[in-house]
Fold this sequence. Notes:
The protein is of the alpha/beta class. 35% of the residues lie in helices and 15% in strands.
Amino acid sequence: MIPSGSLSKPLFDDGHRFIPFVPPKPKDKLPGPAGSFSQASQEGLCGHPNGGASTTPSFKEDNYFVSLLRSSEKKALQELKDKLKASFEDSPSDASMWSIPLLGGDDKADVILLKFLRARDFRVGDALHMLLKCLAWMKEFGADTILEEDLGFKELEGVIAYMQGYDKEGHPVCYNAYGVFKDKEMYERVFGDEEKLKNFLRWRVQVLERGIKVLHFKPGGVNSLIQVTDLKDMPKRELRVASNQILSLFQDNYPEMVARKVYVVLLFSSN
Length: 271
């Protein structure tokens, strides 16, 4: 429960949300497949100072119905398909993401291709470059099998970053809370050297992949997730390197996968 007298205040005006918030406890499993209503979505993602609750403002998913695209967007999508096919003429099976063949010509492939196009404002050449780099990174990184790996972060499961429940529209929610790293011993244990940082980044990608696994990848479905970050006690200077690398990885390889970012700030009055 948020203490009485706490205040919420927007810090930036960049389209992101800053709200008082109490995430569900990790031990409280929230049932239901993607798209179903869960405890989190029914009770809302934000808590108010008076102890009440409300849901985060609704938003519309991007359109993934090809029939509803503008003519210029349809043309860009077809052009991207043609260029991608030419790039993988000798090995079409390599053009695949999340077990979805990108040259299969179905709705799921269109959803993924449209994400890359939107990330580059429908500039086909830029979208293709981004897509090819992402496919190469996924192969080198081993993203397809990362969910099967034990990366040795059991103590951080459900504490630092974890998937938990869905919003009222069925988007899976990823919670991030890095305040535990204000403890220098914990910080050194996780980020103490380059190899440890590399392993943490791998684990953070693993958490994101868990959320992507339950996305629908179909027009009219749930095709993105919500990310909630609790800024309380977060040692921003110490985590700058890790934060920048995480942001770069996600922006370069998971375009349009986060539908909304919610930042949590708790301010307390002197009463």
